[in-house]
Amino acid sequence: MSWLKGMYNGFNEFFLTVVDRRELIQMAFIEHLWLSFVSISIACLISLPLGIWIARAKRFAEPMIGVTAVLQTIPSLALFGFLVPLIGIGTNTALIALTIYALLPIVRNTYTGISRVSPAMIEAASAMGMTSRQRLFKVEFPLAIPFIMAGIRTATVLTVGVATLATFVGAGGLGDVIYRGLQSYKPYLILAGAIPVAVLANMFDFILKHLEKKSTPKGMRIK
Amino acid sequence: MIQFKNLNKDFDDGTEALKGIDLNLQPGALTCIIGPSGCGKTTLLKHINRLISPSEGDIIIDGESIYGKDVVELRRSIGYVIQQIGLFPHMTIAENIAVVPKLLGWTKGQIDQRVNDMLDMVNLEPDVFRNRFPLELSGGQQQRVGVARALVGNPDIILMDEPFSALDPISREQLQDQLKDLHSQLQKTIVFVTHDMDEALKIADQIVILRKGEVEQYGTPDEILQSPRTEFVKSFIGEDRMTRYLKTTNKTAKYYQDWFTMAAPSDPSKEVQALAELDELIHLFVDEKFDVVAVKENDELLGYLTKDSFIKALTSERGELS
Fold first, then answer.
1. Is pLDDT of A106 > 90?
2. What is the tens place of the pLDDT at every residue in A141-174?
3. ipTM of the complex
């Protein structure tokens, strides 16, 4: 029964650590949430119009998706590192890095979602006398929503994870807690930072998945 | 009403899709454009609502060039039905039909009423179908909605691009019958592209036969069946279809050409035209008691038809049919 006792001790110590550092963890959690939320919002503001635009001006699509893909291949830690000499440390640096990271999934899914609307729909819409704008908002965009939402979901889960690195540019977040744990050899403190990150990522995933289903037009859920 | 003037279309890859099309489609008629695949029939149709621009030439509708009009206005005044149906899956049936009225800025009451009328017109119960989604409907029902959507703005012209060819044979027959009824009720100018000769013969008032971007023949189904102008038209219609069709529809004096004799047996006092119908021949032989008539086409003598050979012809026909 010693393993049970060990586990009990482990939980106990973890719990004590959380209670002891609750203010730090609370603040870090809120910072983390804020960093993720703001960077995803900015990424949406940039990516949605960009994705729509390249879906219409196809010759720009490859280069644009290429650029966002290259940005995403930069290791996340290195991206934060690159930005420090340029912008310095602080929240803005973290937000910029996180936004850059979130661009690709949203741009690509918006582009794909709009491009795969069947040519018959486009032809019907045009032939009925819709202007290109009306076609976009009444037909192409609604039909692409499930794809776009999936892109935003991927980007969000990614961002919540990467936001742990914000601590290295002094922007706070749950990375702070993990980093302190690492520095002071306190595994329970590391867990106290890592577990909320995992919970947060899963929570976002769950909420957005639900939203994705809800936002899929009713007529398209019939199969 | 719709007039094509020397319409040419060369695609970027160098195919000459249309070569000097000159046509004058009759107002209020259902005109079928037919031809083998790649003959340019869909290309020709899509010129009418400017989904495709010509390389050269002009299209005149009601005396005005369509290239002088606003393209969006033009398209809203022309109904369009496509083979893939193209209903918007995220909209209900009512919303799908209401697209054009909404674009035209009708009031909600007007739209609701009109949508119900349209559904009635294509034999779909409004209460049942209004709030359904396209994917809940069968192919035949969807295309009925497609037709309702094309008619809703009360356009004078309706373009149909092989609208029934993806449907099962039973729905296809039903929709063809319905379209014929609708056309005789509404008297719209309908341009209907098909590759199915039986379909064209069944529904068309006028048929345009296209081949490699050129008009081979333009005329009524009867004209085309009775006097195909080229070998191509003949082979495209097919020998079978010509005889079958002629046996079951209005036969004319010329149809009995095989029974003509060139030597007048007795005094051929009566002349009839080649296009004289069966009833007229029977009237001449039975009521007027002629024994022989001279059949003429454009003042040219085709031969003499005697009462005896005419009766033999009818008898042998009965034998073939039964």
1. yes
2. 999 999 999 999 999 999 999 999 999 998 889 9
3. 0.79
Separation between Cα atoms, residue A123 and residue A47, nearest integer Å: 26
Place of tokens 């003959």: B39
Q: Which domain holds residue A100?
A: 24-216
- Mean pLDDT to the nearest integer, B46-51: 94
Task: Tell which residue, A217, A195, A102, B201, has the closest CA to residue A187.
Answer: A195
From the list B155, B206, B176, B217, the residue with the least C-alpha distance to B31 is B206
B155 touches chain A (CB under 8 A): no
Mutation choice for A interface testing from B46, B49, B99 by most A CBs within 10 A: B99
Which position has the higher pLDDT, B116 or A6? B116
**Nearest-angstrom CA–CA distance, B292 and A137:** 74
Find the mean pLDDT for residues B60-71: 92
Tell me, what CATH number does A175's domain have?
Answer: 1.10.3720.10
Q: How many residues does chain B have?
A: 322
Q: Which distant-in-sequence residues (6+ apart) come within 8 Å of A112 by Cβ? A: A147
Residue A215 has pLDDT above 50, yes or no: yes
3-state secondary structure of B232: helix
Tell me which of A128, A141, A218 to substitute to probe the interface with B (most B C-beta atoms closer than 10 Å): A128
Chain A residue with the nearest C-alpha to that of B84: A120
Among A123, A127, A219, the residue with its CB nearest the CB of B90 is: A219
Instruction: Identify the structural domains of chain B with CATH numbers, from first to last.
Output: 2-238 (3.40.50.300), 250-321 (3.90.1280.20)
